[in-house]
User: Which sequence fits this backbone?
């Protein structure tokens, strides 16, 4: 997962939007410059860390797949992920058909269903990384299309973005402007078709000793199919200099 410090991302994103208390709105160039500077600083902070990403996929409450990966930023600036030996739980194999034709046909049907479910689970898991962390360019595009609104409430503000990644999806971001911390990050979307497989996604945040914010837990639910994808990022340690 590409880990840009999310608090900095939203601070930067907030500079794209006019506020009721602003004496004079910054120019588009100033907003873009502030955005790039904030993102660069926060990404540089996380580049100093390595962490463990644990992904668990369950169907009807039963764990179907679990894997752990050691993550860190490589020299090319991209996240490198290495599976941790012995930490992954393989998916259950289909039952044996017993050798008879009818049994073999039943086995083939089961295998097909398992294959379809596996493909769907992988696409649901990939959706997590499409929304976390938020893409500033997508936020800018949504704002240009008039799909971004902000609701200030004291020291808190809620940024609502529609049509962020898919038509009719919604991304809601809560931010404490005084503490400069994220308070909420929620998504309403879908995997394939709206209403058929609607998805909810919520993020719980953690903060490192230096104040950097990161997505500690990401929980995605496909209610209609009873599929849940949970991604936990933990064990952040600074890489040797």
Assistant:
């Amino acid at each position: 997962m590409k880990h840009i410090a999310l608090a900095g991302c939203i601070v930067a994103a907030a500079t794209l939007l006019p506020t009721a208390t602003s004496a004079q709105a910054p120019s588009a160039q100033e907003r873009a410059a502030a955005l790039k500077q904030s993102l660069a600083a926060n990404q540089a902070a996380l580049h100093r860390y390595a962490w463990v990403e644990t992904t668990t996929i369950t169907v009807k409450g039963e764990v179907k797949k679990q894997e752990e990966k050691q993550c860190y930023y490589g020299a090319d600036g991209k996240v490198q992920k290495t599976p941790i030996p012995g930490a992954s739980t393989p998916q259950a194999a289909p039952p044996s058909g017993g050798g008879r034709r009818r049994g073999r046909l039943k086995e083939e049907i089961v295998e097909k269903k398992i294959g379809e479910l596996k493909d769907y689970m992988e696409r649901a898991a990939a959706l997590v990384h499409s929304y976390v962390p938020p893409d500033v360019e997508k936020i800018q595009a949504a704002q240009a299309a008039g799909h971004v609104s902000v609701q200030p409430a004291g020291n808190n503000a809620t940024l609502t973005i529609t049509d962020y990644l898919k038509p009719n999806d919604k991304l809601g971001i809560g931010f404490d402007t005084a503490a400069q911390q994220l308070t909420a990050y929620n998504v309403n979307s879908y995997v394939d078709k709206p209403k058929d497989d609607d998805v909810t996604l919520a993020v719980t945040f953690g903060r490192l000793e230096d104040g950097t914010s990161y997505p500690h837990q990401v929980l995605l639910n496909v209610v209609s199919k009873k599929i849940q994808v949970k991604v936990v990022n933990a064990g952040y340690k600074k890489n040797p200099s």
